[in-house]
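User: Here's a chain of 440 residues. Predict its fold as tokens.
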Amino acid sequence: MATAVTVPMTATVERWEVRDWARRAWSLSPVLAVIALLLVPAAGGVEGGTGGTGGLADAASGLLVLICMVRVMRSGARPLTRGAAVVIGLPILGICLAAITSSDPGASLPGVARYLQIFVLVPAAVLLMIRDRRDFALVAWALVGLALLQGAVGVTQYLTGTGASYMGEDIRAVGTFGPTDVMGMATVVSYGLVIVTGIALGTGRGRVRTAALVCAGLLFLPLVLSFSRGAWIATVLAIAIQLVLSGLRRAGRVALVTGALAVVLVGGLGVGSAMVKERVTSITQVAGAPDQSVTDRYTMWAAAGRMWRSDPLTGVGLKGFPAYRDSNASLALSSGSDTAGAGALFRRQPLLSPHNMYLLVLSEQGLVGLLALAGSWTALLVGALRRRARGADCALVAIGLLSWQLIDFFYADIGGPSTVLMSVVFGLAAWWSLSAVKRA
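Assistant: Prediction complete.
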């Protein structure tokens, strides 16, 4: 007599879940491709170019937008609510107005394309590609995976002396982004750290939260070794916001664990302790004896303010900051910053932006452009906060990412291969803030 074979229910469920995640990965493959291709070093990162785009990742973002448009047209349904369309499309007002009123509209056209790509088209495409919370989780974990890989490359660079040049040594962790985009790896690792913090503070399954905590520990070291003051400040403040939103008691416990980890890695093991201490100390030296990079940054901030005062409503035009920089900057501005290491020869990198997104927009797009862009970002943040009760995990991730980006914009702007990832992050947060959230 044949013996009946009983398949455990748990095995059946696990196989179903694997197939479900595989289908989701295929459906989201245009988004995942943009993330994965950021592991490929951009040509500018190796040759010492300007690093204005991310090469293959930027091309993949264009394909993502095209695929999304085809899906929307085939479905025949309204892709966005009226409110979501207004929030996503609001930056178009300032971008187009600044281009039209520019003294050189032709030179502004590349800026129009770049701003629309980063702040409108790619975020809208990511929003429309995500269907439910599992899709949200898949994209979020893909970002964490990218952060872990880039972080591993960065730590290896520090240990082997093959990173970007910092204080005369090739030890700065920059991942695959090269010395011309020293913020690239720091940005990616920060995104990953903020995401896993939100997951660990959420209400998901124990195994998932444990995995998130492990990833947080792994990402802490490469962030430290990036020596990026702006990324440190933005990460600390974004995680603090997540902790406060998750509960003060839990915030206290996590703060103690993080402090202990920092003491062990930096103090106990001596991982870059002297240089980290010097870098942290330099954050407070804004008036007494700032280093040349801080002096250059404040000089460019002042120059951006003078450009805005010359044309308050519409600014000097997209891509106009470099052309108007010298006529508005003081003699304290240096000729550029030195870049070397990580596979590139020494070169003098020109200072083509104020390294402050708000001042860049204000100088090039005027008050109209700043209100349009900042209004869109603020609406996303408010929407994420209002939906906190619908899901702690997604809410904390979205709020953390938005908070990090809006804080980091005080010290950085668009530019470099990692910029395209910013558009994916805005799209991920926009889905939580603007779409009809499904529980699947």
